[in-house]
Structure formats: structure tokens, C-alpha cells
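User: Show me a protein chain along with its predicted structure.
Assistant: Here is one chain, sequence first, then C-alpha cells.
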Amino acid sequence: MTDTEPPCPECASEYTYPRGGFQVCSMCAHEWEPGAAAPEAETAPVIRDAVGNVLADGDTVTVTRTLKVKGSSAPVKAGTKVRNIRLVDGVGDHDIECRIDGFGAMQLKSSVVKKA
């Protein structure tokens, strides 16, 4: 272990050593090839509406078609504005959580909304 050994890319520990052409971290046991590119940080998936606009948390959207609602006799009509949406990692096909007046908390697909 010398001062010239690179720190671990996983845990940033300075306690690394060479072994068989690889660098090994003595703290987390991560092995990597010296000089290899660091792995890219995962980026959040881009969620787009029905016409291709990028959606973000807090946006206001409009429902593009009438949607049946389980447990309710009234549908969510096309043209209904939904304020302050929240994007979630796909719970099934639904990637938007929101509150709709008269219905309460719901999940919607991004393919049935348009950015207002």
C-alpha cells in the first residue's frame, strides 16, 4: 500500500492495493481495472406526456381522454386539469401520482395527459 494507489471508486477509501492487474479496496472488496473509466451515474428516466413534452414534479397537466375510475360511477372527463403532479418510478404502467378534485389521490399514465 503506497501513497500512489488510487482511491476506491465505490467507497472512496484510500486503502487500496494492486492484485493481479486489478486494484482492490480493502474496505469494501471492490475490484476495478486501473485506468478504466468510472461507471456512469444512473440518470432518472425522462417521462414525457402524450405529445412528447417532458414532465416534471409540480407541473399542471390536462387529461386527454375520458378515463373510467374503479370504484366510482363517474369517469374523469377529458379536459380535466390536474395540478401539482408527482412523478414516480413506474408502479406498473402508471408514472404520475396526483390528486383530482372529486376523486382524491390517483395514479395516471403519462400517455393520457398533456402538459398545460
